[in-house]
Design brief:
Length: about 170
């Protein structure tokens, strides 16, 4: 006897398609980064373009609305950044968006990237369900925290008014 898919099944399928598309996009971006600049250096403007592409593709494959705010980069768009760091930041956004949709059931996500006082700040906020207790860091979030701290930056989980990951990284040695 065949069962009709439920709304939950359809939502799970859509989320899985979005996750797969983000993984494929990441592979394309990694390969593009390697091919585009043999010096292994890119700019914050290129990071902005890649993150915007990631967010728009995710919106196409899911019911989530992603707002992006790069206004804090206006004075630093030409600042150099290693392609490895750009790949890491892309993966950070990918991880946070995926977690918000999968674990929190988020319908709205906001990505904010800015530069102030020599620090690159990235925040991914969502309106999904906030854990009742302190959130447990799985492999992905632990990797993000370790990377930020090793680079001389910071990593915070904020659960006021939704759920957010805030990361700062020093602009020097990017």
């Amino acid at each position: 006897k065949l069962q009709r898919p439920t709304e939950l099944d359809a939502a799970d399928e859509k989320t899985e398609r979005a996750i797969q598309r983000m993984r494929e996009s990441m592979d394309v971006i990694r390969n593009s980064v390697r091919m585009m600049d043999k010096r292994n250096i890119m700019t914050l403007q290129e990071l902005e373009k890649l993150l915007t592409l990631c967010c728009r593709q995710t919106e196409q494959d899911s019911d989530v609305c992603i707002q992006t705010d790069f206004s804090g980069l206006e004075d630093a768009l030409e600042a150099p950044m290693s392609s490895d760091r750009i790949g890491f930041l892309y993966g950070m956004v990918q991880e946070c968006v995926t977690n918000g949709m999968k674990h929190g059931g988020a319908e709205r996500i906001r990505l904010t990237v800015s530069v102030k006082d020599g620090m690159l700040s990235t925040e991914v906020w969502n309106n999904g369900k906030v854990p009742d207790n302190a959130p447990t860091e799985g492999f992905g979030l632990t990797k993000l925290r370790n990377y930020a701290e090793k680079a001389g930056g910071s990593f915070r989980i904020v659960t006021a008014y939704g759920f957010a990951i805030r990361m700062t990284l020093p602009m020097e040695n990017l």
